[in-house]
Write a structure and sequence with these properties.
Distance between the termini: 67 Å
Order of helices and strands: HHHH
Strand content: under 5%
Structural class: mainly alpha
Oligomer: single chain
Mean pLDDT: 80
Largest sheet: none
Shape: elongated
Radius of gyration: 25 Å
Number of helices: 4
């Protein structure tokens, strides 16, 4: 009987840890959607990025003459 309760305790602990890990990932956005909708819309519209880069000129930061990007695998 002690083996059964130990097994149930270990299994119950595992379920509790998995449940505690899933709460902030899955259940909290379902319970409090207003927090996540606003942040999603801000990220979607890229307002934060435009605010953060407001006074930055790319030519001043990036050295001149660099290739923008090339495919390392040679696809066209």
């Amino acid at each position: 009987m002690a083996g059964l309760s130990r097994t149930l305790g270990i299994f119950g602990g595992f379920v509790a840890v998995v449940g505690a890990a899933f709460y902030p990932i899955y259940f909290r956005p379902l319970l409090l959607p207003e927090e996540y909708i606003v942040s999603f819309l801000i990220c979607f519209l890229e307002k934060e990025q435009s605010i953060n880069r407001a006074g930055i000129v790319q030519e001043d930061i990036q050295p001149a003459g660099l290739k923008v990007w090339s495919d390392p695998f040679g696809r066209k």
